[in-house]
């Protein structure tokens, strides 16, 4: 599926766009997209805020140093409040800080100002993780934001805030992203660094 997504991302004349993966699952897809269009590859760090007892179901998310973003329909459906999720927000902010230090160290985040940016994920369920990333990026003044992903819940791409959404499939029987992959093993930090190194060798990814 990664190759099929890459084939749908158009090449543009002029400077190549900046391709940003949502770790961890979006990284293998983003590597193929960046290679196909000759783009710089980096990551935008986002943490999902899961529903209590069902952590894989994202009811909110936050990106880098941005505020939490919540999926209001999910909160209403599950009887949750933003106040009741305060501890979950704090936990994910701590993990977000760890990942920033792990993946980026002292390097600054990628600068999307004045550039076309392609954000890549492995799939959209509620879409709230991508929405948090795109909202954070929008505040850094890109000229255009594209979201590219293999599979989406029907309608999930409509509210994420991208200028263009590329989604190969919106199956009516969608229940989870992993349902549509033959192999959906969770990637590790080491996997992410290995995939990034496979695209480009950079001191950013050579730390021990």
TrEMBL record:
Keyword Ubl conjugation: no
Pfam families the UniProt entry points to: Pribosyltran (PF00156)
Entry GO MF terms: glycosyltransferase activity
Residue intervals of the Phosphoribosyltransferase domain: 13-157
Cleavable signal peptide: none
Keywords, comma-separated and alphabetical: Glycosyltransferase, Transferase
Name listed for the protein in its UniProt record: Phosphoribosyltransferase
